[in-house]
Design brief:
The protein contains 13 helices and 14 strands. The longest helix has 15 residues. It is globular and about 55 Å long.
């Protein structure tokens, strides 16, 4: 229980909305709960004698709203589909990549958008990627039940499923379940079908989890048997020897995402230390540390070269033949509509 116990302590700090890890006062990182792993910024600590200070959030929209309302941090860790909102709101400024030697090792596919990189500069440093798929207890749930994403609407699992309290992730699930694998050109009919499917899935939901430690706890307790999960929830359960499997090859497919860091305009701390932090994150050795601690892949080709194919398969990061809906930037108006509809569905409407 030690991994989940320590993670729940972090969740308690998150719930209290206080800095969950106060350390170096010259750098405040606004991040997802669980990313304060020392191996990710080891060279920063070696240089400055302390880790950065962290404040945590549970989902991308929560983080954006807090920053847009005036909360000050030096950097934040949004996933790719959020970057346009930060830019449009004037919250971020370009990175000076001449100060980031390892920038050249980032796989170009993660920067292939004018939202991330244009003639004004580089607005986004992609760092990590993962999958959203079906986590389940193989001792209680037969493999044939998770061969389709309709396990989430199967009456057999009423009150035994969980979904992330994240609009992007639940809509990725709903689009996949209704035959859509690209959300950059969604029709009105496709939106309506996905919304109807989500309303049906809502009838089975025991809880909407706010962060992977919460999700892992509900599965470890036996309350939840099937969850739409990121890699980290599965990693935490495996580290405490709970029975869990990760199904990425359901007939309808699974989802993928990548996240990274933005340079907040008028950050309160040290710009020099911010660059030390991002350089620590991008060094090759951060790749194995990221995989071991959280179960995610790294955007650096040099970092991924340190990880074996066997390790990728074990983490659920290998290539698959099933469809994959990539959570890349999509229409901001559609995102807002999805967010509003998701809130209605959670409220029972």
């Amino acid at each position: 229980m030690k991994k989940l116990t320590s993670l729940m302590a972090g969740t308690a700090a998150l719930a209290l909305a206080i800095p969950a890890q106060a350390a170096d006062p010259d750098l405040l990182v606004f991040d997802w709960a669980g990313f304060e792993e020392p191996g990710l910024f080891a060279t920063y600590t070696e240089k400055h004698g302390d880790s950065p200070s962290y404040t945590f959030y549970g989902d991308d929209d929560e983080a954006y709203q807090k920053l847009a309302s005036g909360f000050k941090a030096d950097t934040a860790h949004p996933c790719s589909q959020m970057v346009s909102k930060y830019r449009d709101a004037g919250l971020i400024e370009p990175w000076d990549v001449s100060r980031i030697p390892e920038f050249a090792n980032i796989d170009p596919k993660y920067l292939n958008s004018p939202i991330f990189k244009d003639d004004q500069g580089v607005w986004y440093i992609p760092t990590d990627w993962g999958a959203t798929a079906v986590a389940y207890n193989p001792e209680e749930v037969p493999a044939e039940d998770v061969a389709s994403l309709n396990v989430f609407t199967n009456p057999k699992y009423q009150g035994r499923t969980s979904l992330p309290d994240s609009s992007d992730d639940v809509w990725a699930l709903a689009y996949l379940a209704t035959g859509v694998t690209d959300w950059t050109n969604v029709t009105e009919e496709q939106f309506a079908a996905a919304a109807a499917w989500l309303r049906e899935a809502h009838q089975n939901v025991q809880s909407y989890w706010a962060d992977p430690s919460e999700q892992a706890q509900t599965m470890a307790s036996g309350e939840v048997l099937v969850s739409w999960s990121w890699n980290d929830g599965v990693t935490y359960l495996r580290e405490d020897d709970y029975p869990v499997a990760f199904q990425r090859e359901a007939t309808e497919g699974s989802s993928s995402f990548f996240c990274g860091f933005v340079n907040m305009k008028d950050g309160p701390g040290s710009e020099d230390k911010l660059y030390d932090f991002i350089n620590a994150w991008l060094r090759p050795e951060a790749g194995p540390a990221l995989l071991d601690a959280i179960g995610y892949g790294h955007t650096s080709k040099a970092a991924m070269a340190l990880i074996s194919d066997e390790e990728l398969v074990d983490a659920g990061l290998n290539e698959i033949t099933a469809p994959v809906l990539a959570q890349t930037p999509n229409d901001p108006a559609l995102r807002e509509r999805q967010l509003a509809e998701f809130e209605k569905i959670k409220a029972g409407f």
